[in-house]
Specification:
336 residues; alpha/beta; D-Maltodextrin-Binding Protein, domain 2; 5-stranded mixed β-sheet; globular
Length: 336
């Protein structure tokens, strides 16, 4: 039987490298893959449906599914992080902890993005900072945002503002026009056409701001102890017409992604520079906090995290109701 040739776009590489470079085959499929920044990846797929398979924002996936977009997810989660720990403040702000953000001006790349969803939920439930008691500033333009592709409008009761086109998250934080901003790799990320902050980096900006949470390990441990998981940012989706024609594809993709992750784990200790004083002890310290598998796939090991994500999305009025896992994920993956 001839293999299908399918297109895939991904913003993640390391944990899925074996699948993308052909080391790990997908049964019945030859993949032709592209790589781009997450902001561009999700916008292109949500707006144009360019690819058969795509990495996707979890928050945008829930919104898109609630609004009738035809795509099916597989429970492969290549990207996780403690989203609220991307908040930065001005060094002279006097803000000492997250609880002091009540009534403040908070900047995000995009209001509906997963990182912003998790951050609002964490501020609300862990630090008593109501989403309705702050001012939200969004950097991405309507035309180039995920929300522009899914029909986003600011939820009722939210104090929502768009950052002027001649400014950015980093410039407004440095100039004290924001009290805090989510700087997701702003100082090191490749420039992209979606996020102005990646191209608006002035000399000295990095020295003018500091993380809201200075001890990342301590805050990470607190979060895991409180919630039992590390939040996911992305998953992979199959375009609806492709899944309808090839319903076996979802399971085969899941199996291949899982095998590619195991290949990455096997190589990981050798990828940590040996000249760092503590070498692989960093890896063991991470696992002591988040578990032996920092990137678990499947629904069984992620049920509590996914339900929290769904609850936050509904609570923040991004989705009109709480979606079910059966609505979002491919049937063949529901027992994985």
């Amino acid at each position: 039987m001839k293999k299908l040739e399918l297109s895939l776009i991904s913003s993640t590489y390391e944990r899925v490298a074996g699948l993308l470079d052909g080391t790990v085959p997908v049964e019945g499929v030859d993949l032709v893959w592209s790589r781009s920044n997450p902001s561009e990846t999700f916008w292109r797929q949500l707006k144009f449906g360019e690819f058969h398979i795509a990495e996707m924002s979890m928050s945008s996936l829930l919104i898109a599914k609630a609004r009738g977009h035809d795509m099916v997810a597989i429970p492969v989660f290549p990207s996780r992080r403690f989203m609220h720990m991307a908040l930065y403040v001005h060094r002279d702000s006097g803000i000492g902890d997250a609880g002091e953000l009540a009534g403040k001006r908070i900047g995000v790349g995009e209001y509906q993005q997963t990182a912003a969803l998790w951050t609002r939920g964490t501020l609300e439930h862990d630090f008593a900072v109501s989403q309705y008691g702050v001012d939200w500033y969004m950097e991405r333009s309507e035309e180039l945002s995920h929300g522009g592709a899914t029909g986003f409008t600011p939820p009722e009761g939210i104090r929502f503002h768009r950052i002027p086109e001649d400014k950015s998250l980093i410039s407004m934080l440095v100039d004290r026009e924001l009290d805090t901003a989510m700087l997701l790799s702003t100082f090191h990320a490749e420039r992209n056409v979606i996020d102005r902050s990646t191209g608006d980096r002035r000399e000295g900006d990095a020295d003018t701001v500091r993380p809201l949470f200075p001890d990342l390990l301590a805050e990470g441990r607190r979060y895991v102890d409180a919630h039992g998981f590390v939040p996911v940012n992305h998953c992979y989706v199959i375009r609806g017409d492709v899944h309808a024609k090839h319903p076996w594809l979802a399971f085969n993709l899941f199996a291949a992604f899982a095998k590619a992750k195991e290949h990455w784990y096997q190589r990981l200790p050798n990828a940590i520079p040996s000249d760092l004083f503590f070498g692989t002890a960093y890896l063991e310290q991470t696992r002591s906090i988040v578990g032996q598998d920092p990137f678990p796939y499947g629904l069984k090991d992620n049920a509590a995290m996914l339900q929290t994500l769904i609850d936050y999305s509904f609570e923040q009025k991004l989705t009109p109701r709480k979606l079910t896992l059966e609505e979002v994920f491919a049937p063949s993956t529901l027992d994985l």
